Amino acid sequence: MKKLAVVVLVLMALIFGGEWVIEILHHILELMFHGVMIVLEYLELFTEEVLEIVLAIAPREAQTLTAWLGMGLFLILLTLLVRTLLGWYERLKTWFIPWWAEEKASIQATYAKMGWPLIALGMLLIAAYFFLF
């Protein structure tokens, strides 16, 4: 199913020249960003109000405390995100090296079967296409 989704996305990008696809993704990401910002603003206001009531402090002190709490939470989340990305990178690296060796062997076997004249003709056609179009 994932391969089908990737194939469909690549075909859409090729058909529409990437223009519509990128524009749609831009609008989706923009809406998501606005939604996140609205949620963060309401969370900030709620935290400030709770701190004012519970600790009986001035609004300015509640804003300062909220900012420091937000910074601490941001640093914790950033640390977790970096750890997660490094784990994904390590898993990708362990998967990619054997896959690349397989692909390389497959391509070399294909080249050996096809012969260099056919490969040279293909490369010439590709170069001519890029040169002319």
Which descriptors would you attach to this protein?
single chain; 133 residues; mainly alpha; 2 domains; 0% strand
How far apart lie the N and C ends?
34 Å
Oligomeric nature of the chains: single chain
Q: Beta-strand level of the residues, as a percent range?
A: under 5%
Gross morphology is: elongated
Category by helix and strand content = mainly alpha
Q: Give the % helix.
A: over 70%
* Radius of gyration over all CA atoms, rounded: 27 Å
Please give the domain count.
Answer: 2
SS summary, helix count: 4
Poorly predicted parts:
none
Provide mean pLDDT, rounded. 87
Order of helices and strands: HHHH
> How many strand segments?
0
The main β sheet shows up as:
none
Q: What can you tell me about this protein's structure?
A:
By secondary structure, this protein is mainly α. It has two domains: 1-56; 79-133, no CATH class. The chain has helices at 2-15, 19-55, 59-114, 116-132. Helix 2 packs antiparallel against helix 3 (59-114). The longest helix has 56 residues, at 59-114.
